[in-house]
Amino acid sequence: MKNAKGAFKVIYLDTNIEGKRMTFGEAENYLKDFGFHIGGNWDYDRGMFDGILYRKDGKTIYLRMPFQVIEGELDNRNALIEFQKPFIIKHVVNLGIAKDSSALLSATGFAQFQKPLDKDGHIPNQSNWQEFGEDIVGEIMDELRRKHD
């Protein structure tokens, strides 16, 4: 996906995870071994597993693996999910102390989900990040196949 200036803001990955199904609990347990966690953008019928690829100076590049709930609801670990097309995205956050009512929460670390300054920041070296992300998802899929064989 490109912004108005033609720079890539989201890098979609070509992987074999699209269409794969498993229970939410199985996916959550399995993916945490690879550093992934359920992101804050979830609802009862969809969500994303987020993994951090890079973090420095308030800039974070995430590998996101979105999914839809096929059976049940996400508040149940037995809900059946189906993975969609994974992507890479960059967030830039303000490392300074906010001057609003949530400043105390930010300073103490309780406001971990502050609004990014640029939630869909430009990602340099897109082809390198795309290859890196596709390799990670490939490793996840290889390990998943080994566990189920």
Summarize the structure.
The protein has helices at residues 24-32, 103-108, 126-148, and strands spanning 10-12, 21-23, 36-38, 46-56, 59-71, 80-83, 87-92. The protein has 149 residues and is an alpha+beta fold.
Structure in words:
With 149 residues, the chain is of the alpha+beta class. The protein is 26% helix and 29% strand. The protein has helices spanning 24-32, 103-108, 126-148, and strands spanning 10-12, 21-23, 36-38, 46-56, 59-71, 80-83, 87-92. Strands 1, 2, 3, 4, 5, 6 and 7 form a seven-stranded antiparallel β-sheet that branches.
Q: What is the third-level CATH name, the topology?
A: TATA-Binding Protein
Number of helices: 3
User: What is the C-alpha radius of gyration, as a whole number of Å?
Assistant: 17 Å
- What is the CATH domain class? Alpha Beta
Overall CATH architecture:
2-Layer Sandwich
Name the beta content range.
25-35%
How far apart, in Å, are the first and last alpha carbons? 37 Å
**Share in helix:** 25-40%
Mean pLDDT: 81
Largest sheet: 7 strands, antiparallel
